[in-house]
Amino acid sequence: MRKTLVSAIAFALAGLSTLAGAVDAQQAPTQLPRTVRPSHYDVSVVPHADKLAFDGKVAINIDVLEPTATITLNAIDMTFANVKLAPAKGKASFGTPKVSVDAENQTATFTFDKPVPAGAYRLSMDYTGKIGTQANGLFAIDYDTKASGKKRALYTQFENSDARRFIPSWDEPNYKATFTLDATVPSEDMAVSNMPAASKKDVGNGLVKWTFNQSPKMSTYLVFFGAGEFDRITTKSEGVEIGVITQKGLTSQAQFTLDSGSAVLKEYNDYFGVPYPLPKLDNIASPGSSQFFAAMENWGAIYTFEYALLLDPSISTQGDKQEVFNTAAHEMAHQWFGDLVTMRWWDDLWLNEGFASWLASRTTERLHPEWHTNLDAVDTREGAMGRDAIATTHPVVQHVETVEQASQAFDAITYAKGESVIRMLEAYVGPDAWRKGVQAYIKAHAYGNTVSDDLWKEIEAAAGKPVTQIAHDFTLQPGIPLVKVESVSCANGSTTLTLSQGEFTRDRPDKKPLAWHVPVIAKTVGGAPASTLLDGKGTLTVAGCGPVIVNAGQTGYYRTLYAPAQTKQLQGAFAKLEPIDQLGVMGDTWAQGMVGLQPTSDVLDLIKAAPLDATPQLWDEIATDLSSLDAYYEGDAKRQATFRKYAISRLSPKLDQVGWEAKQGEEAPVAILRSHLIGTLGFLGDAKVVAEARDRYAKNTMPAELRKVILGVVATNADSATWDKLHEQAKAEKTPLVKDRLYGMLSAARDEALAKRALDLSLTDEPGATNSAALIRGVSRLHPELAFDFAVAHKDQVDKFVDSTSTARYYPAIATSALDLKMIDKVQAFATKYIAEGSRRDADTTVATIRYRVMVRDQRLPAVDAWLKKNG
Q1: Does residue 3 carry a pLDDT above 90?
Q2: Rounded Cα distance, 143 and 154, in Å
Q3: Quick check: 38 pLDDT over 50?
């Protein structure tokens, strides 16, 4: 799953005997009784899209592993009829069981008059279910079309625990089975599932029954069904039919995804050494959005929201193109790492998500080197460390007990830290050994379930060097190593570093540090790298003399703290560093300056030292850092104005250099930087940029690459008349992807009165059911207190706009950008009232983040003020 941030799937070992299945079930966690195990589902559904309901029938082949009078499975919002249990062979019947539903535990239990002996049986029933309006279970998306008015399409989203809304089932990763599905839908609709359609049959009354081929063994949360007025384009790659399915008339916007899918499939078949095993692989584009995810890796039927899959020539950017590719590569990586081989339980979710993120990044670099995305690795690591540095962090391998906790596991630790740790370990053992180990892992566990140690075993065997200890240090305990450069001495043309280890944290300065075995790579500027495995304290000798870079190449997951003299040397040599090391040094300097490990002003010295011709990604980071500092000044207009004057003076020359118009042959990072600079300067209130954006908006002279950022600048600085104009454009727009963007702009206004209008708009039907929650989140970026109070005051209405997998994190996240300690009491009161005690990690994280932000404002900004007075 690609998160908004992304997901996981599952498969069983082929040919398991009943006994082997019983043993496997005993090894894996479960919230269901272990007495029964499914092996096959025959599912038949008839959706009633107009009524937001559906009828279903299911017959499940089960193995009763020990005598039991009850059979319990997962189900939500279902009613049952005609429940029957019969032996797999023979005609004996166990009568009509008593049905009891436990809504809190999301189960249905069938109780028989006498115990059912161990053996093979077929459990069948009729049932009814609900069609939702958010991305959980079977849900409907309503959307506009230019040619034929409003339309409604149906899709499913089951990760992590929502297949139980569609099929009465053993809805856990380790309970795998094969599936056949048939669906009766209107004749004008196309139906889609994991496997190709075996047949289509007209059943009268304007309905067609679609029957799909049997799937391989897989977990319930991987099943997919969709239906609507769709178009499909296809190509062949490696003997597999690759398809992209869109609403009618939009397949031209899917060609890049189709071409990318073909190239990525070839790459992955080669990398894994195991060919993709299904006959087809579709990517289904859906209007709308979710607060939880952007795409889901259903085996053979990837589901992706349009904004992450289609390229609309009127609004899509180079950044969008790269994200579309990366999303597709991420979901396709899951077809092996997550689908063919699956984590046994949600504790090891990172095996799916971290690996898919890492492989997508690797594949983007390999197939599109012109994008220079190798430099994005630092940004990924920084995203992980921002979450990992506070007390509410958790290990990569985490303990999960409930459905709500499983939903919260989809976070920056699982994705970004998982990716960063894999990148570090691959660099440690070497890419060839890493790949050899991965191939052995895939082949050994195909159609099975694993835990993290199964991977480390294969990597260690392939590499011929210890890996497990390092992997355990970075995945079984939380936090970030801090590598301190205690001293540097040069003799005979070599430099010896004395290193020690601590722990980097934002909010626990007196914490006893954890310990890691840290792979450290270092070099002098321009010299050859050397490496060591740091365990506590150690020395490392590198060739040459001069400024030293620790974590050279930035593959390590740790922060580096230099002594002041070494920091000054790096500042002087900053322009000579490799671009990725410039980004790494900038990231460490920012983070350590904010917590007081080094002067806060050091990051401003680096920004001052950055040459105008530095890589665009460095200027992206500079713009981000200046924008972040600006946010800490909110509420103090005089000091903020002083800071903004400096920030604008630093960024404007770079925008003047890249210009507002794209140049022939310019590289992709320049196009992305142009938008970022315009957006940042517009947000900072640069009069020149705001005026240019308003002029281009008024004249409608906005190239597609700049349309979103120009609209964003105009919306942020909007007055009432401009907001009204944007609103009218949003209402009139018929293309869902563009319409959603326009409604999002309405939440961006700095003017509080306009922010209130956006909040009021969110409670109406106008923006669309999946846009309302995003409108409130959008307002919260500049008006967190206003947005949080509004959401809580209207919770009954807002709940309808938030998919159930997001509820425990959605409301606390609205308060994240607050700079008022009073918000902490509000967040904690909300969590106590509405969130289960074991599922408050996101609320606690918001509280920690607010405290950190207030600390930075109060304790760090004075140093920024002093630097500005001296240098500004």
Answers
A1: no
A2: 11
A3: yes
Q: How far is Cα 546 from Cα 524, in angstroms, rounded to an integer?
A: 6
The kind and range of the H/E element at 283 are strand 280-286
DSSP 212-223: EPPP-SB-GGG-
Q: Yes or no: say if 268 and 327 are a contact pair by the CB < 8 Å rule.
A: no
Q: Which of 387, 589, 349 is nearest to 479 (CA)?
A: 387
When mean pLDDT is compared over 645-654, 729-738, 800-809, the highest value belongs to: 645-654
The pair of structure tokens assigned to 73 is: 């499975």
What span, in angstroms and rounded, lies between the C-alpha atoms of 192 and 82? 28
DSSP-derived pairing of the beta strands 548-550 and 517-524: antiparallel
Would you state the pLDDT for residue 92?
73
Amino acid identity of 338? G
Active-site residue list: 331
Per the structure block, which two tokens stand in for 268? 């992955």
**Spatial separation of the C-alpha atoms in residues 417 and 480, rounded to whole Å:** 10
Q: Please give the Cα distance from 460 to 455 (Å, whole number).
A: 9
Cβ neighbour number for residue 395 with a 10 Å cutoff: 18
Q: Of the candidates 805, 812, 816, 806, which has an alpha carbon nearest to the alpha carbon of residue 828?
A: 812
Residues for the chain: how many in total? 872
Q: Which residues pair with 488 in a beta bridge?
A: 497
Which residue do the tokens 């190709």 mark?
A: 196
Residue type, 778: G
DSSP assigned state of 13? P
CA-CA distance, 116 to 114, in Å (whole number)? 6
Is the peptide bond between 326 and the residue preceding it cis, with omega within 30 degrees of 0? no
Helix segments in 490-578, DSSP class H? 564-572
Name the amino acid, one letter, at 393. Answer: T
Instruction: Write the pLDDT tens digit of every residue in 649-677.
Output: 999 999 999 999 999 999 999 999 999 99
Could you report the per-residue pLDDT of 124-172, keeping only the tens digit for each? 999 999 999 999 999 999 999 988 899 999 999 999 999 999 999 999 9
d(CA 810, CA 292): 9
Rounded CA gap, 518 and 513, in Å? 14
What pTM was estimated for this model as a whole?
0.94
Taking 3-state DSSP, the helix, strand and coil percentages for the chain, each rounded to the nearest 5, stand at 45, 25, 30
Cβ–Cβ under 8 Å, residues 775 and 791:
no
pLDDT at position 702, please? 96
728-758 b/e (C-beta count within 10 Å ≥ 16 → b)? ebbeebebbbbbbbbbbbbbbbebeebbbbb
Give dist(CA 1, CA 7) in Å, integer. Answer: 3
- Name the H helices within 169-239: none
- Position 792 scores a pLDDT of 98
**Which of 560, 348, 597 is closest to 453 using CA atoms?**
348
Maximum distance among all alpha carbons in the chain? 91
